[in-house]
Amino acid sequence: MLKKSGRRNPGRVRAVVYAVLVHAVVIGLLVIGFRWTIQPTGEKVVQAVAVPETAPRKPEAPDKRKQEEEARKNAEAEKAAAEKARQAELQKKQELAEQQRKETERRKAEAARKQKEQAEQQKRAAAQERQKQEKLRQKHAEQSLKEQMAAEEKARQAAAQAARVATVVDKYKALIRQRVSRSWSRPLGVAKGLQCVVSVRLTPSGEVLAAMVVRSSGNPLFDRSVENAVYKAAPLPLPDDPTLFDNFREIEFLFNPEE
Amino acid sequence: MMRAGIKWFAMATMMLWTASAQAVLTIEITRGVETGLPIAIVPFSWEGPVAPSQNVSDVIEADLARSGRFAVLPRKDFISTPHQDKDVVFKDWRILKAEALVIGSVKLVSPGKFQVQFRLYDVFKETQLAGFRYTVAGAMLRSVAHQISDIVYEKLTGEPGAFSTRIAYITREEPPHAKPVYKLQVADSDGFNPQTVVRSAEPLMSPAWSPDGKRLAYVSFEDKRSKVYIQNITNGQRELIAEFHGINSAPAWSPDGKQLALTLSRDGNAEIYIMRLDTRALKRLTYDPAIDTEAAWSPDGKDIIFTSDRAGSPQIYRMSATGGPAERLTFEGDYNARASYAPDGKSITFVSRQQGNFRIAVMQLDNRTMQILTDTSLDESPSFAPNGRMIIYATEVRGRGVLASVSADGRVRQLFKFEEGDVREPAWSPYNRVLQYKE
Amino acid sequence: MKNGKHLVVSLLIAFAMAGCAGEQAVKPSTTGGGEQGAGAQTAPAAGTAGPSARELSAQKRAELLAQHRVHFAFDSSAIDDDARAIIEAHASYLVDNPSINVTLQGNCDERGTREYNLALGERRAQSVEKMMKVLGVAGSRIKTVSYGEEKPLCEEHNESCWRQNRRVDISY
Predict the structure, then answer these.
(1) N or C: which end of chain B has fewer CB within 10 A?
(2) A185/chain B closest Cα distance in angstroms
(3) What is the ipTM, given to two decimal places?
C-alpha cells in the first residue's frame, strides 16, 4: 500500500509536467498564430444585401411630368448616386465586416483546432503515461508475486516441519493419555458426569514438577484420584528430541470419564 | 480501514507466535481402571510377650477388600515396612503406585490391656489423613480394627464405613443322631464373634433389626406354628407380638421403630398388616385373595414394598404405608420377591429368578433399570449394609447354606466363613456407634 | 353290631370311592414328568384298567390311608389325581371317625423366598382342607399349619428331592 502511494507521487508529478508542457505548447501556438483555412462546413454564408424597394410607380403628367420627371430624374440621379455611394460604403462596410467575421471565425476555428489538438495531445500523453504506469505496475506485480512465492515456499517448509513436529507430538500425546488412563484408579460410587482439570508441569525427563487442580469436579474424592493418576503415571513418556519439549512443558489433563 | 486491517493482522501474528512459543497441551482422559483405590496396609507391629489373638491389620485388610472400593496391595511387594511416622519413606510407596498407606502398632500396656495406634497417609501428597490411639481390652481388638477400617474408608471415599455394624442370621445344625438345632445369631459385619440370641428345636425365620439396633423381631415355630416375637438383644428379654390364627410372619420395622409390618393370614389368606407397637392395634393393608407378604418400609416411612402373586406369579409391588392401591414394580422375569430398600431410598434389592436360577437383583426406582448382581442359582434374602454399598445374602456352596456379600455395583463378591451347619436369612444391622476411644 | 354297621358303611363308601376311582381310570395322570414322591403310590386309578368302584379292595384303601403325604407341582397348590385319592381315603377315614381331628401341614421345596413359601405352604394345606370339607369333614376338625420350606424331608438340590418336599403332611 505504502509503496503504491509512493509510486503514484512521482507518476503524478510527471503527468502534471506533461500537461503543463502541452498547455505551454498550445498556448505558444496560439500566440504565434498559425493560420488554418477553415473549410466551410456546408453552411452558406449569406451576405446581407439591402435590397431597396423597387415598387413599380404610376406614370405622372408630362410637363409637370417632365419637370417632375426631371426633378425626379435628378432626384433619382441623386438618389442613385447617393445610393451608389451608400452602397459602395455599405459594400465596404460589409466587406470589412465580412473580413472581420472571417477573421474572427478563423481565429475561432483555429482556437478550436488548437484545443482539439491539445486535447489529443493530452490524451496521448495520458495514454503514454498509463502505459508507463502499467508497465511499472506489472513489474512490481511480478516482483511481489516472486516475493509471495518465496514466502509461501518458506511457509510450506515451515508447515511441513510443523507437521512433522505435530506427528511426533500427537504420538506422545497418545502415549501419555494411555499411561495416565491406566494409572487412574477411577473411584466408584461417585455421581456420573464429573469432570476435573489438572494442570501439570513436567521436567524434561517426564517427572511431575507440579500438579494442580484448576477445575474441581466438586467431589474431593474424584479430584484426588485424578491428581494421583498423574503422579502414578510419571515419568511420562516424552519425545527424544529435546527441542520438542516446549510442547510438553505444561499439560492440562481433562478427566472426563465416559459412562 | 486499511490501517485497522494492518493492526489486526499484526496482532494476530503476534499472538500466534507467542502461543506457539508456550503452548499448553490439552489431553482428555476418558477412561480409568476400576479396581478400587490402591492402598497398602503394613502389618502392625506387635510389642508384648504373647501375640494377641486378633491380628488388627489383617482384620482391616479383609474389611477394606470386602468393601469392593479398594485394591489392597500384596505384602510381598512392600519395599519397607514402617510402623512409626518417622520410618515412612513415601517414595517406597509411590513406586508401588499406592495412593494410600496405613501403618500401625499394637502394644501390651498392662495385663489384658492393649494400646493400638494407626496412621493413614496420602502417599502422593505425603500428608497424614488420620491418626488415632486406642487403649482396649483384648476382647475389643476386633472392634477397634473395624473402627479403624471405618475411619480409613470414610477418609478415602467420603462415605461412612459399615464395618462396625453387625449382622443377624439363622443357623441350622444337625448334630449326628440328634434333632436339628436352630439358632438366631448376631455377629460382626465380617461374620466373626457370633453370639447366640435365640436357640430352638424348631425353625426360626426372618430376623429383623429395630432401627436403634437393640432389638430383633423374628418368627419362631417353637409352638409348632409361626409366631412373631421381639427380643432385646442387650438383655435377652422378649415379647410375643403376633400369634393370630394362621400365619404370623415377615416382621418389618418402620423407620421410626414404632410400627411393625406383618404378614397374617387371620382373614383367610396371607395379607399385609401394620401393627402399632404401643397399642398393638392392627391395620390391614392388602385385600387381595393372592399371597401378599414380605413387606419392607421405605426409609422415609411413606411406602411399603411387598411380594404379591396377584398377577399369577410373585412380583414386587409398592403401596402407601397408610393403605391404598398397589403399583407393580417388576415386569421382567416370572419370579421377583423379598424386596428391601437401599438406605438412600433410591433403589431396591430383591430375589429374581433368571432362567430357573434365583439371583440377587438391584433395581433403580427412578428409571426401573434392573441389574443382576450374582451368577449363582440359589441366592436369597438380600439385605443392604447401612451405607448402601454392600449387600449381604444367603447362597449355597457345595450343598451348604452360606452367607456372601456383594458390592452394590456387583463388582466384588465374598463368601463368609462359618463353622458348622447351614446359615441363612442374614440381616444387616443399622449403624452401631460404639463409643470410640479417641485421643 | 356297631362293627357290622361300620363294615357296611365302609363297604358302601369303598364302593362309592371305587366308583370315583373307576372314573379316574380314563383320565390321564396329571402329575408332572417327575418321579412320585415317597409314600405316594400310584393310585389304582391311573393306568391299569382298574377294577370298578365296587371292587376297590379294603387293602387298597388301607394302602392309601397309610400315605400321609400328598405332593404338588412347583409353585402350585392344585391337587392332582394321586393326591386326590389319598385325600379321599383320609377324608373317609375322618368321616368314619368323627372324634378324630386332623392336622394338615403345608410345605414347599427350597426354591424361592422363605416367607413366600410359608404362604404357599399354607395355600396347599388349605387346598387339602377344602377338599376334605367337600368330602364331609367338618372344618372345626381340621387344623392347617404351614412350615414353608423349613422342614424339608431331604436336602439335595434336584427335582426328585424337591418334589418330595412339595407336600402337605396329614397327621392325627
Answers:
(1) N
(2) 5
(3) 0.85
